[in-house]
Amino acid sequence: MDVAFPSMRDMNRVFEVLASLRDIIEERPLSPVPPPWCEARGWTEALLRLSDEQVAHCEEHGLAACLPELAGAPSDLVELGRNVLELTVVPAWSGPTSGAGRREKLVAQRKLAQIDRLVEHARELAASSNRIVDFGCGRGHLTRLSAASWDKPAVGLEYDEALVHTASALAKGFRATYVRCDARRQRPKLQPDDLAVGLHACGELGDLLVELSAKAGAKVLLVSCCPQKRAASVREPLSMAARHYGLRFEREVLGLANLTHRRECLAAPLAEVQAARERRYAVGLLLRARGHEHSAVRPMRGLSRRFSYLDLATLATAALARCGDTPPTQGELSKVQARAKVEHAVLRRLGLPRNMLSRLLELGVVLDRAACLAEAGCEVRVAAAFDTEVSPRNLVLLSQLSGTSVLPW
């Protein structure tokens, strides 16, 4: 493995800081009332006086990077931003990807770039493995292309039967097979000479891959994604180290780890994303006014996020219909729209410190998995596998058994 991160000290530092910031991480501002953590630290006034331009700049680049330029920013907030930037520096895989720009039938270019990067940099792990096991293989692109590149048999595990059929059809002539498997209930059996892989294996599937690999002594190549996608309401830490710091987080809280600071989000430009969030907030106000308090907490529950990019009337009508209620009047829409414009602007400012911790939380989950493997006697490495423009979820965890673990807890 070509990177030397993380050390025991790296993991402990991240875990310790996450534990000290639990109050911020666990309480997302949901109303214009400043959260207790913001008031207690004396940050409210400085945040609320930020201009619209400053807020947009912080949302694009991250508050941590912008704090040194913000006149009057609280010194402890500036220091926290500096620590966050330092803690979230992860070594990047070096060198260009061979075959950059090549095309593969039915594989999106961004997905292909990710696969090529993993295949190229994990050759050493694959060479000492007898079989590839791909968790949550989807259409089987990684399974198929890694089997071909590494000349190893590969099996793809996927819950969706339609995707299994698609993957099998695409893999004719390759050393790849696919199995319909709900890994949470039918736990796959790994062998010590297996390489367990997962490209954006979400939530509990990523945790399961790590737990099974630690138990079997199998090698690991895992790019994490969406830690909140799990059946349980709480994510319990996998490692003794993270348990020592009490790093158990509610499912809803873990969604913070998906936030990325960039001008162009996956769904739309950042300005459009913020406008969509303001519309969702307006719908929540309308639902409360109609007496649907429970639904107002999650105004988009049961609706596609694409609805957020439609006009407020369409979105509100769909949300009310879901509650068995009649469409909104123009007067209701005008009232909640005006109120949402004011209150959402406050929310954007109050949420900046919490949003600043998104990458730190994402890294904490990855390092908990790394610590779990280290405690099982494995050598572990974490790196940024590809550029954020290819995918913002780019933290890769590699692991293999070591004669003497370099990270003894």
Strand tally is 9
Number of helices: 20
- Order of helices and strands, N to C? HHHHHHHHHEHEHEEHEEHEHHHHHHHEE
Segments where pLDDT lies below 50 for 5+ residues?
A: 404-409
The CATH architecture term of the domain at 109-242 and 366-401 is: 3-Layer(aba) Sandwich
Principal-axes shape call: globular
**Percentage of β-strand residues:** 5-15%
The CATH class of the domain at 109-242 and 366-401? Alpha Beta
Radius of gyration: 23 Å
The CATH homologous superfamily name of the domain at 109-242 and 366-401 equals Vaccinia Virus protein VP39
Put the structure in a nutshell:
The protein has 409 residues and is of the alpha/beta class. It is built from 20 helices and 9 strands.
Please give a structural write-up.
The protein has 409 residues and is of the alpha/beta class. It has a domain at 109-242 and 366-401: Vaccinia Virus protein VP39 (Rossmann fold), CATH 3.40.50. Helices cover 48% and strands 12% of the residues. The chain has helices at residues 8-20, 22-26, 36-40, 44-48, 52-61, 63-66, 75-87, 109-121, 123-127, 141-150, 161-170, 203-216, 240-244, 251-254, 270-289, 293-297, 312-322, 330-350, 352-355, 358-375; strands spanning 131-135, 154-158, 176-180, 194-202, 219-225, 234-235, 249-250, 378-384, 395-401. The strands form 2 sheets. It has a 7-stranded mixed sheet with strand order 3-2-1-4-5-9-8, with helices on both faces. Strands 6-7 form a two-stranded antiparallel sheet. Strand 1, helix 10 (141-150) and strand 2 (154-158) form a beta-alpha-beta unit. Mean pLDDT is 92; it is low at 404-409.
